[in-house]
Amino acid sequence: MNARENLAELSDFLAGDLTLELAAVARPRESQGAPEYRSIALARQAEQFFRDVVNDCVGRHLSPLSWSVREIDPTYKPDQTDVEWQRLVDLLPVSSTITRLSNLSSTEPFRSKDDDYKSRLSYWAAVMSDADGRQAFFFRAFSAKAELKRKRGAALVARDGAFGLVEDSIFVFDDVVDCFVFGEFVYVLRRRDFRRIFDQMEKVLRRAKAVAGELHARVPIDNFEAFEQACATDSRLADKIVAISKRDYFDKLNYEMLSPVIEEFGLEIPTVASDGETRLVFRPAPSDRFRILKLIDDDYLRSAMTEHRYEVNSKTEPPAS
After folding, report:
1. d(CA 176, CA 180)
2. 279: helix, strand or coil
3. What integer pLDDT is reported at residue 309 of this predicted model?
4. Rounded to whole angstroms, how far apart are CA atoms 174 and 192?
5. Which terminus has fewer CB within 10 Å in the chain: N or C?
6. Contact at 8 Å (CB) between 311 and 300?
7. Nearest 5°: phi and psi at 86?
8. Is the peptide bond before 64 cis (omega within 30 degrees of 0)?
9. 140: nearest Cα among 61, 14, 22, 6
10. Cα 319 versus chain centre, distance
């Protein structure tokens, strides 16, 4: 079964009579520890809210299928109409989480007064099961900021014409799903939050810092320390530079390849020259920090049909003829 066929199976599954359980998951207290799972008891209306979230974010897109189904590709920037997939067996952090969530019967309950646990909250997971034991898992990033009392000011409720102070623990859940698992496939709707949930972002940032050094060796960059730091801390830059490292031309990059593009498109990328070397100047301001990576990622293209020049944000090679 492929990823698209599996989504058709999920559509039939969601149309059945399903139970729903909810769990909160927190980061471990220590770096080598395990995530901590807590079950969240739901009243009827609260349970219906999560059923509606799953239906609005996933179910209604399945029949007919309104998504473009793509295998996860770090060189591709997904659109809102894309769902990315990867096989569960290839994502150990996800598969181990599914194993733990598949049976919540003995899981310790969530306690609203456990401040230490709440400070480490990472995500919630909704587990839907049928009578045959099949399950689907839906995930959303979730942190201590969801607790209303952590926001500045006071929460007031209007009752009988007067406002009173809310002293109960109130948590705000948004109606979003970041990723879900069914059968042998993981599906990603929001790549950045998916990686944050499963602690993959740190790995991407480390890789981005290494690639920044590899790029600098090929295309010298002035203000390199700031460039390296930006790539190692800004997830958008990290995604971009890691994608560049996978381009088939990366090993051949040099300033001479880039100079004609800068000139033709009139790009605002200054250069400095010294000791026979020309360096691209990195400027860290939000409006400027992507300029070098957009240049190197071949984002500036000329149409063969119209000769018009374009800046693109995603590229997919046409099928082989």
Report:
1. 11
2. strand
3. 65
4. 17
5. C
6. yes
7. -150, 150
8. yes
9. 22
10. 27
Phi and psi at 48, nearest 5°, equal -65, -35
List, for residues 306-317, the tens digit of each pLDDT value: 665 666 665 555
Rounded CA gap, 3 and 1, in Å? Answer: 7
Which of 293, 296, 196, 251 has the alpha carbon at shortest distance from 204? 196
Sign of the CA dihedral running 99, 101, 106, 112: positive
Give the dihedral sign, CA 13/63/193/21. Answer: negative
pLDDT value of position 4: 94
Q: Is 159 helix (H, G, I), strand (E, B) or coil?
A: strand
> Distances from the Cα of 246 to the Cαs of 215, 258, 304, in angstroms?
12, 18, 25
- Span 80-97, pLDDT tens digits: 899 999 999 988 888 889
CA distance from start to end of the chain: 27
Do the bridges between strand 179-182 and strand 135-141 make them parallel or antiparallel, or are there none, so unpaired? antiparallel
